[in-house]
């Protein structure tokens, strides 16, 4: 979209509550209509005489809330029948451990291991902070890991930067018969690196289940679920509030040899996907209210459709990237164009002082949470599903004015 | 309180929202004033222009919310300085595993184990479904367990019933030098068995850290925290919505020998108390909104004070137990008077048909969630902190009328 067609038209429904433009990387902006519904029903959910916050997870009403949430997500993402959808707790950090522990216990992986005669390795694609943390957790728990790639290494200095992926020809993939699974994070929230859809599954041998952390880009574009072993995601970006993790896992990976005494010994129940799968995500009290809000977000997403959401994400991020690309000497994008994220946009300004001023002047215009992650610095703005196009427009107008005022 | 002084006076503030009397065992009734505050601030928290549901956990505003919640709980429960308060995820089920894994890794326990020359045992007091699940989880994870007591065994039939505790003289406590810790659940939500305050810590050797699951009676009476190694609790009874677990742990139990390679290998980060303690409960995104609501409940509890809350719980449950005791041939209390719970009151009626009728007629009077747990049957009503005295009164009036109509 050419900048001259951009106007800061903020729909009146958005400003009626004096709300800010919230560019937080997560927890993050939720659809206003969802918040309004939550607010309306907060004391008395649909005539039940109680709040969802107070509702027994064993009540019929709540049973419908959680099964509707699951069914809606299944429709939106076109999840095939041979995949289970689970609602767990513990976010990304929980799922790092859960992915490793559950995969190493599944029948086909253990059979492969028996044939090999030694412990299988776990392939990790490291594209930023989150995949790095996943790798670290697996190591902590005694896993043998194989790093397929670790950012991009400077030939001159040997320094590793998480701003791109090396060519596939340089990937150090494990041999399929020696590899339990491959793990990657499709959108790196901290480093702003997003791997294009199917980019990884197109490369990996089908004998190796691909486990993908989609915490920060799930629901923002169509996915071909059937190509993944499991997809794990914390909800608090595009899907709802913090406190629930969503796992979509191929059912054959939940099969276990129950006569094997080693199977469950290392998996605490709380991380055991089978424990949840057998009880429709409620072997014990789930985070009831959080799942309820997610369910409303899923419905909101269904009404728009994944194709429309993808178009919106490209439009939103395109507006900002166009401005970055127009003035690269002032707005310095940190990520290789091919892999830059439509969700988390990271860039720097010429000086630290200008960055501080940028953040402070943005705040005066009710644009908040612009500061880069503490590990990276600079500016980061997150443009999740619920960010109206008008938020991105207002930001770009601000960028332009700031640029014109401060360019040398 | 004599029944003739009981009237069904429902304060107008309670009925203004057409709310029911919610006797759910959890998630359960929350203070109306808390819900009203949550509702009021749902779209725009104190002028921040966003909902707490959307708020970055790294923002200053949220930092204040979580540290206020911790500080308030510390004041209300008089938590000594040498105890940490942690906010985790995973409820009781998560804490079963966490208690075992963390305790077995702590310096003093490992030193004791080194002296003994073999794996220490974990003492379990089994008074109902929840402590039984805790025992099971520790066994699953490879723990050596010693059952101190397992309900009450009939001398005639050998059948075990969870309706009382055997005399202390019959407890099979492990030798202190062979025992890593002792675990019990102070209030059994399913079986309605509540162990009196200090009853267990008075018996256990001070060399053995006592780990207590107080999920369903925390904040309902004063506790002498200093007598416990750790107290763990899911929030969704007296403390807030489902989705957060609270751990109060003596700091020396978080000390570890970091040179010991076995230490963290078996503890997924998500269950590692040290991981949270080092990062003020935010090594990663916490269940932000749930903790916010808990913080409001803690303030509500602080305004009343634990002594008043204890008086309220005794009054509320006393009303119902008085009616049970007055007509024991009709309302058959399932638990020994000495150990019956003030939180979860379980009883049966003469026939299944009468129980169904009782539940259905109660529903007509807007009293819901009366059905006993699926493992136990009968009637269960839960009278947590946020249940107004008027709710218990209304229930007792209904009991009396039902009795008079149906007694033979």
Structure, explained:
2 copies of one chain form a homodimer. The first copy, chain A, has helices spanning 12-15, 32-40, 60-77, 91-105, 107-116, 129-140, 273-277, 288-304, 306-326, 352-364, 389-406, and strands spanning 21-22, 83-88, 121-126, 144-150, 152-153, 160-161, 179-185, 187-188, 193-194, 210-213, 230-234, 245-250, 332-333, 344-348, 367-368, 379-382. By secondary structure, chain A is an alpha/beta fold. In chain A, helix 9 runs parallel beside helix 11. In chain A, a hairpin with a 4-residue loop joins strand 8 and strand 9 (193-194). Chain A is globular and about 70 Å long. Chain A has a 7-stranded mixed beta sheet. Chain A has 2 domains: 52-301, Type I PLP-dependent aspartate aminotransferase-like (Major domain) (Aspartate Aminotransferase, domain 2), CATH 3.40.640; 305-406, Aspartate Aminotransferase, domain 1. At the A-B interface, helix 2, helix 4 and helix 8 of A face helix 2, helix 4 and helix 8 of B. Chains A, B: This is Phosphoserine transaminase. Chains A, B: Keywords: Aminotransferase, Transferase.
Q: How many β-strand runs of chain A?
A: 16
List the secondary-structure elements of chain A in sequence, H or E.
Answer: HEHHEHHEHEEEEEEEEEHHHEEHEEH
Largest interface: A-B, 72 and 72 residues
Structural class of chain A: alpha/beta
Features:
homodimer; 408 residues; alpha/beta; Aspartate Aminotransferase, domain 2; Aspartate Aminotransferase, domain 1; 2 domains; seven-stranded mixed β-sheet; 16% strand; disordered N terminus; Phosphoserine transaminase (chains A, B)
């Amino acid at each position: 979209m050419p900048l001259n067609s951009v106007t800061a038209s903020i729909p009146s429904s958005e400003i009626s509550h004096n709300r800010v433009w919230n560019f937080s990387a997560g927890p993050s902006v939720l659809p206003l209509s969802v918040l309004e519904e939550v607010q309306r029903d907060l004391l008395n959910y649909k005539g039940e005489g109680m709040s969802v916050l107070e509702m027994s997870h064993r009540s019929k009403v709540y049973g419908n809330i959680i099964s509707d949430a699951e069914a809606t997500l299944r429709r939106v993402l076109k999840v095939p029948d041979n995949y289970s959808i689970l609602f767990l707790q513990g976010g990304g950090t929980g799922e790092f451990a859960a992915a490793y522990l559950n995969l190493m216990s599944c029948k086909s992986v253990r059979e492969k291991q028996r044939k090999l005669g030694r412990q299988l390795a776990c392939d990790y694609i490291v594209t930023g902070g989150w995949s790095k943390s996943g790798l670290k957790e697996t190591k902590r728990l005694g896993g043998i890991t194989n790093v397929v790639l670790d950012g991009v290494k400077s030939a001159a200095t040997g320094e590793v930067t998480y701003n791109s992926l090396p060519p596939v020809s340089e990937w150090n993939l494990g041999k399929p018969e020696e590899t339990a699974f491959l793990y990657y994070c499709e959108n790196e929230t901290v480093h702003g690196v997003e791997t294009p859809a199917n980019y990884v599954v197109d490369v990996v041998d089908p004998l190796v289940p691909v486990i993908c952390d989609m915490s920060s880009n799930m629901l923002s574009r169509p996915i071909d679920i059937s190509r993944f072993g499991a997809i794990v995601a914390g909800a608090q970006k595009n899907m709802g509030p913090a406190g629930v993790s969503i796992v979509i896992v191929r059912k054959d990976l939940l099969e276990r040899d129950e006569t094997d005494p080693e199977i469950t010994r290392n998996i605490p129940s709380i991380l055991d996907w089978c424990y949840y799968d057998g009880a429709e995500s409620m072997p014990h009290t789930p985070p009831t209210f959080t799942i309820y809000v997610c369910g409303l977000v899923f419905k909101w997403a269904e009404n728009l459709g994944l194709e429309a959401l993808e178009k919106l994400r490209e439009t939103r991020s395109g507006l900002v990237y166009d401005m970055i690309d127009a003035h690269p000497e002032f707005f310095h994008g940190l990520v290789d164009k091919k892999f830059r994220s439509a969700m988390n946009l990271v860039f720097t300004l010429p000086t630290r002082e200008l960055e501080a001023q940028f953040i402070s002047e943005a705040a005066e215009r009710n644009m908040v949470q612009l500061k880069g992650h503490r590990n990276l610095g600079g500016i980061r703005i997150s443009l999740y599903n619920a960010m109206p196009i008008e938020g991105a427009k207002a930001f770009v107008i601000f960028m332009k004015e700031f640029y014109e005022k401060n360019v040398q």
